[in-house]
Write a structure and sequence with these properties.
By secondary structure, the protein is an alpha+beta fold. 36% of the residues lie in helices and 22% in strands. The chain binds zinc ion (2 copies).
Length: 365
């Protein structure tokens, strides 16, 4: 993290002339406090942080999380609510004399925000909506975070290799997804970082296909997109595999996607924009005649969340910085036929990028 994230947040509080910031987004909460609880849904928070420049930072939560919060949130005072977070927050805002309170408007239900507004009005606090502030700090990974990401990538690859060796024609997509997720747990992952995608034949035309009962067939491309969470950090990898011999078209398309991936990999370095990285891959796919069949962006940041900033897409005109971790995942999707996607993870450096996957030449054909 280079700089302590709490200090970065305190600096942001000063710049914005706030008195405090309320943190509700689960990965941001963890990043700042070390408190690892996750939210079952945005409507079921397992706690919020209240950070100001001088006062002791607070973690407000309920009794279900008391022990965990005390053990994990080092340097935070844990306060428990029993009649809802907002009732306790109201008392704290009043006691601390918070006039301007920043809150994460991108991670707050509209209904909760309306209630927060009523509470704020009663105690004379002005609300300042913020989006993506801590997410910005999270983009650059420090040595410790990189180590955790590497371990997550390694584990993910081990799982892939084991399941890949057991793939047989006739197994269903769901059976393969189950084998992947079971193996992840067996090898120590705390969870998959997203719902595993196994999409064979025509199903591969949907970039976010859900595994079905369709059996795998010889010669067809099978997209396997999988990730693990280990020590809180995510991995994300896609391989397109073929049981038996791929036909000419499949072989041809895999080569195009692989060339696109290599072109982007060669281009990525600190100082280029997300848009430029995306374009490097997109040009290759366009030239091959499949520009319309690569609908999604080239990649995304990975860390505590599997999808986080920065995005490698035509929409991101910001420059990449050393220490950012991104995916490089071009694809071609042909309705009725299927799809090809290849995805590696890389860390951006000052003069290039380092691929984190050990088997990144997998299926070079
Ligand atoms: Zn993926
Ligand atoms: Zn991805």
């Amino acid at each position: 993290m280079g700089q302590n994230p709490l200090n970065l947040l305190r600096a942001a509080i000063k710049v914005r002339k706030l008195d405090a910031i309320l943190i509700s987004q689960p990965e941001n909460r963890r990043y700042l406090s070390g408190y690892t609880a996750t939210d079952h849904s945005i409507a079921e928070s397992s706690g919020v942080l209240l950070v100001s420049v001088h006062d002791m930072p607070l973690l407000l939560t309920d009794s279900r999380y008391a022990l965990q919060a005390e053990a994990e949130a080092f340097g935070f005072e844990v306060m428990l609510y029993d009649r809802g977070m907002l009732a306790l927050l109201k008392k704290v805002l009043k006691k601390r004399g918070v006039c301007r309170l920043g809150f994460e408007s991108h991670y707050f239900l509209h209904a909760t925000a309306l209630k927060l507004a009523r509470v704020a009005e009663k105690v004379g606090t002005e609300l300042v909506p913020l989006t993506g502030l801590v997410e910005k700090f999270r983009q650059g990974k420090d040595v410790d975070e990189l180590e955790k990401i590497r371990a997550s990538v390694r584990l993910n690859e081990e799982v892939f290799q084991e399941v890949y060796a057991s793939l047989r024609v006739g197994m269903t997509e769901r059976q393969v997804a189950l084998a992947i997720e079971t193996t992840m747990r067996k090898k120590g992952a705390s969870a998959p970082s997203f719902e595993t995608i196994v999409a064979a034949g025509p199903n591969g035309a949907l970039p976010h296909a859900v595994p079905s009962d369709r059996p795998l067939q010889t010669g067809e491309p099978i997209i396997i997109d999988m990730g693990t969470v280990l020590n809180g950090y995510c991995s994300d990898m896609t391989r397109t595999v073929v049981l038996g011999e791929p036909d000419l078209k499949t072989r041809d398309l895999i080569r195009v996607v692989r060339r696109a991936q290599l072109a982007a990999t060669a281009k990525i370095r600190a100082g280029i924009t997300g848009r430029e990285a995306d374009r490097a891959a997109r040009e290759i796919i366009k030239q091959a005649g499949y520009g319309k069949n690569f609908g999604h962006g080239l990649g995304h940041g990975v860390g505590l969340a599997v999808h986080e900033a920065p995005s490698l897409s035509s929409r991101n005109r910001k420059k990449l910085r050393a220490g950012m971790v991104v995916t490089i995942e071009p694809g071609i999707y042909l309705p009725g036929w299927g799809g090809i996607r290849l995805e590696n993870m890389a860390v951006v450096t000052t003069d290039g990028c380092e691929i984190l996957n050990a088997d990144h030449t997998f299926l070079d054909i």
